[in-house]
Input
Amino acid sequence: QVQLVESGGGLVQAGGSLRLSCAASGRTFSNYAMGWFRQAPGKEREFVAGNDWSGGSTYYAGSVKGRFTISRDNAKNTVFLQMNSLKPEDTAVYYCAAGGRFGLYDYWGQGTQVTVSS
Output
């Protein structure tokens, strides 16, 4: 079992930045691929970014590519999502997820709210 706890969400103006963190506990963090997802009100949960166990391979949704960066610190059991040039359409609850490989996630955090004002 892996427990995931997100933090770093908040209210920011359009064009601003936020850095989300997701702290993992329970099993060897470096065994897991990690991902970030988001869900806006009335919409389906969507993939935002992911990386492999080492962080050497990264993947992004087209809507965030060039603005968001996923990274991880395996020594601190933490994955990050740096979000720059935020837009109102980035407003959502952001979730981190862990799984055996990219695209297959078994564990989810409780989410952190990101609100971008225009």
In short: The chain has a mean pLDDT of 95.
